[in-house]
C-alpha cells in the first residue's frame, strides 16, 4: 500500500538541516562496528590469537546486531522512535566503555557483542525519516542517510588505521567512546519529538516480533531485496577484513595507516550515493540495482590482477564503493514506499538478513584468507558478486511480469467509469 496524501498531511516534513543532522548521527553510531577492520591484525597479536580466529569478534558483533534488530527494531512500530534511539545509543556508549576497559579477549568480545546488539538507531532513523519526507524525495533522503552510514564507516576505518599506526590500538576505542558520548548528548536535538508515533497496545511484544515474519512472508519482493543485500554486505565485510590482512602481510608489508588511507576511497560514495539515489527515483529501484550490480561485478573481477599493490587496488575499490551502497539504497526503496505502519518491521527483516550476511562475510573473510590467501578471497568475492547480479536480474524480471499482469486488471476495472 502506497502512502497516501492524507497520511503525509498528518505529519510535518523534515527540514534539510534535520535530514543532515540525522545522517551525522547515523555516521557516528555506525562507525563502532568498523573500527576493527584495519586493526584486526593488531588486535589478534595483542590477544595472542591467530588471524583465522580473530574473525569471531566482528562476526559475533554482526550476529548480535541481527538479533538486536529482530528483537528491538519492531518496537519502532509501537513506541516513539526518538525515545528508543535515546535508550539504545546510551546503551552503546556503556558497551564502548566496557571495550575500553577490557583486560582480555573474552571481555572485549562480550562488550563488542553487546555493542552490536544495541546498534539499532541507524535502522530506526530511516524508517522514522521515510514517514516525514515527500514520496518523490524518498530515494534522495534514503540515499543521504545511507551516505551517513558510508561516512561513519569511512571515518572508522581511516581513523582506526592512522591512530593505531602512531599509538596503541585501544586508543581507537577511547576516541570512539568520546564520539558516542557526544552523540548521546546531541541526539535529543538532532531527532525531533515524535508526535506522530502511535502505541499499539492491542499487539503484544511477542505478536509484534512474530508479525515481522508474517509480513516478510507476504512480501516476496522484499525478501529477495533482503537476500541481495545480505550477499552484498557479506562481500563488503569479507573484502575489507581480508584486505587489511593482505596489505599488512609479509608479502606486501604495508602498515595499518596505509589500510586506513586506502579506506578513504569510500569518500567517493558520500558524493555519488545521493546522486545515484535521485537517479534511482527516475529510472526505478530495480532497474538501477541491476546496473549497480553489474558495475560491482566488473570491479570485483579486477581485485586479483590488481591486488599486488595499493595503487592497483584503487581501481576496483573505486568501482565497488561507488555502486555497493546503491544496491542497498535501491533494495530499501522496494519496500519503504509501502504503508507507514509496517515499514519498521519490513526494515527489521531486511536488516536482520543483511547482518547475518555481514556475520558470514566477517567469518569467511578472515578464514578464507588464512586458508587460500588473496587468490582464494578474490574467487569467493567473485562468486558472491555474480550471485548478486543474478538475483537482481531475477527481481527485476519478476517485478516487470507482476506489473504486466496487474495493468490489464487495473485497466479493465477502470473502463466502466470512463
Automatic annotation (TrEMBL):
Keyword annotations from UniProtKB, A to Z: Membrane, Transmembrane, Transmembrane helix
Protein name listed in UniProt: L-Proline/Glycine betaine transporter ProP
Transmembrane segments: 20-36, 56-76, 83-102, 108-129, 141-163, 169-190, 224-247, 259-276, 288-304, 348-368, 374-395
One Pfam entry name: MFS_1
Residues in Major facilitator superfamily (MFS) profile domain copies: 18-398
GO molecular function: transmembrane transporter activity
Organism, scientific name: Erythrobacter dokdonensis DSW-74
Amino acid at each position: 500500500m502506497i502512502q497516501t496524501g492524507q497520511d503525509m498531511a498528518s505529519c510535518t516534513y523534515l527540514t534539510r538541516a534535520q535530514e543532515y543532522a540525522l545522517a551525522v548521527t547515523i555516521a557516528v553510531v555506525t562507525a563502532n562496528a568498523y573500527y576493527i577492520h584495519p586493526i584486526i591484525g593488531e588486535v589478534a597479536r595483542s590477544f595472542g590469537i591467530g588471524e583465522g580466529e580473530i574473525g569471531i569478534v566482528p562476526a559475533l558483533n554482526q550476529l548480535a546486531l541481527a538479533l538486536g534488530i529482530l528483537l528491538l527494531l519492531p518496537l519502532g512500530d509501537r513506541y516513539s522512535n526518538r525515545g528508543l534511539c535515546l535508550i539504545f545509543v546510551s546503551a552503546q556508549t556503556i558497551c564502548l566503555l566496557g571495550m575500553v576497559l577490557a583486560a582480555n579477549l573474552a571481555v572485549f568480545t562480550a562488550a563488542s557483542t553487546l555493542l552490536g546488539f544495541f546498534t539499532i538507531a541507524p535502522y530506526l532513523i530511516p524508517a522514522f525519516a521515510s514517514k516525514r519526507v515527500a514520496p518523490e524525495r524518498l530515494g534522495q533522503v534514503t540515499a543521504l542517510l545511507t551516505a551517513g552510514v558510508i561516512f561513519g564507516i569511512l571515518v572508522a576505518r581511516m581513523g582506526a588505521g592512522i591512530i593505531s599506526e602512531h599509538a596503541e590500538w585501544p586508543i581507537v576505542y577511547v576516541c570512539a567512546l568520546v564520539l558516542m558520548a557526544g552523540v548521546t548528548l546531541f541526539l535529543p536535538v538532532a531527532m525531533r519529538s515524535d508526535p506522530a508515533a502511535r502505541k499499539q497496545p492491542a499487539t503484544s511484544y511477542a505478536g509484534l516480533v512474530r508479525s515481522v515474519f508474517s509480513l516478510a512472508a507476504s512480501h516476496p519482493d522484499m525478501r529477495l531485496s533482503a537476500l541481495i543485500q545480505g550477499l552484498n554486505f557479506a562481500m563488503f565485510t569479507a573484502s575489507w577484513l581480508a584486505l587489511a590482512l593482505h596489505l599488512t602481510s609479509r608479502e606486501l608489508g604495508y602498515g595499518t595507516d596505509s589500510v586506513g588511507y586506502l579506506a578513504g576511497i569510500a569518500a567517493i560514495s558520500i558524493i555519488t550515493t545521493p546522486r545515484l539515489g535521485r537517479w534511482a527515483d527516475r529510472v526505478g529501484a530495480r532497474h538501477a540495482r541491476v546496473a549497480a550490480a553489474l558495475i560491482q561485478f566488473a570491479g570485483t573481477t579486477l581485485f586479483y590482477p590488481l591486488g599486488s599493490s595499493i595503487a592497483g587496488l584503487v581501481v576496483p575499490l573505486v568501482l565497488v564503493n561507488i555502486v555497493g551502497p546503491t544496491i542497498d539504497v535501491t533494495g530499501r526503496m522496494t519496500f519503504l514506499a509501502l504503508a507507514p505502519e509496517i515499514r519498521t518491521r519490513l526494515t527489521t527483516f531486511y536488516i536482520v538478513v543483511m547482518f547475518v550476511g555481514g556475520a558470514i562475510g566477517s567469518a569467511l573473510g578472515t578464514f578464507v584468507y588464512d586458508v587460500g590467501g588473496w587468490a582464494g578471497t578474490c574467487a569467493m568475492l567473485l562468486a558472491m558478486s555474480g550471485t548478486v547480479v543474478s538475483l537482481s536480474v531475477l527481481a527485476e524480471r519478476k517485478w516487470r511480469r507482476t506489473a504486466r499482469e496487474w495493468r490489464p486488471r487495473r485497466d479493465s476495472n477502470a473502463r466502466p467509469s470512463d
